[in-house]
Specification:
By secondary structure, this protein is an all-beta fold. It is built from no helices and 26 strands.
Amino acid sequence: MWQELLALRIAPGKVLRVSIPDGRVDTLVEAAGPAPDGVVVDSGTVYWTTMGVPVIDPSAASGEASSDFSRRNGGVHAVNLDGSGQRDVLPDGSITTGKQLTSDGAGLLYWGDREGCRVSRARVDGTGLTDLIVNSPDDGQTQECVGVAVDPARGHLYWTQKGPAKGGVGRILRAGIEIPDGGSAGRRSDVEELWTGLPEPIDLHIDGDWLYWTDRGTPPAGNTLNRASLPGPGQVGTPPEILADGFAEAIGLAVDGEAGIAYVSDLGGHIRAVPLPGGRGPAAGGAEREVVSLPFPLTGLSGVDGVDGVDS
């Protein structure tokens, strides 16, 4: 069971430690780089992505449309869980727009690259940078990859393509972790569309036989926490179950299966704890609660068990 969460403050970029029992907030990394978005903890090391410095259009309407992240100045970074040894795994400019980050627990990091329209991976030391999915950009933002989850036991990679803001054309897709023989990252024969027509799916998390995701689209189906069972081979996803709603632009997601709780962060600065239906942990049958409410937007989340710094 987790005792802490790591949460990302997008501007100025910081990595925060949030105590789950009492909501105390401390800063782990004071200068985390421009626009951090995805974070994961693996074997006592914290890894996070940055989206990079956007080009701001002062004449555009406020919101996503006014920030252009298409310049290639994102990166992947690391620090020890005690705050020492901050370093670059992939320096700024190695990727375009780093989004959700996950680990396979065996030395590989996986992340979505939104404006890069790809899903990539590298070893935790930064070597072996490899694209696994490469889409051709379009004018509707439908090819941009955001959330990512990896299922080593079944050999699958999952990712979200959220589409335009509040567009209602979001998708969750799946492929093998490895590119099929004779294929390439841009030409794969094993890509499956599992869910289509979603409001705006963002981050993913696999726990057991369930896939969880946040969605920052238009209510009632958007700004929600969702889950559905993992589809079998050749099957499409069943209609998702909405576990919680009313978020202020839901982004980050971390699921503590042992405790039976999902944690969701949003751009309103909130982190909420949502007990999972059928959970066997101490939160089973309990009510949602707000872990913390902060006066600035939050993006990625990751759990820390307080013992060895391993995210489940």
